[in-house]
Amino acid sequence: MPMTTIDELFEHNLKDMYGAEQRLLEALDEMTSETIDADARKAFQQHRKETQNQIKRLDRVFKSLDMKAEAQPCPGLEGLIKEKKSLSKEKPSDEILSFYNLHAAQKVERYEITAYEGLIEAAEHLGLDEAVKQLSQNLEEEEATLNKLKALASEYDVEDLRSQEEGEEEEEMATVGGRRRRS
After folding, report:
1. pLDDT > 50? residue 167
2. What distance in Å separates the CA atoms of residue 173 and residue 168, rounded to the nearest whole number?
3. Is the pLDDT assigned to residue 130 strictly greater than 70?
């Protein structure tokens, strides 16, 4: 059946976000276990707790609409998770993976922020005050998390990551006949 009303679009996007938040719980567990930076691990653990509360708020939105809370797969979030998983094929060092996870999480936050902004706009047009209230709380948390992740990433010693790379390159170089070459 074709989608023809903003009500249907809102319901679709609400179920999409519900699925995204549930899937994000798993992704946050993975990033926590992969990350060696203690502050970043703590941030991922905190965001997992916030995500659980965001799911509860989405449950309240469904309830306020007399709808069963129902998750549907979120292709947008799945794409970001797939992108992150593709990095593991490159076998990054623990330090590089930790740094990357901070930026991968920022991408997710930006996706969620945009999704919540769209849901709030639609809920406002539909006069769904309780939905606006719950969704706005989720949006505020997502924005705060993004700022925290950005701050953590900016504190990373990128020069140290660069020197690790240069050190690995030097190890790969061998002197042959007075010339340096990659082995």
Report:
1. no
2. 9
3. yes
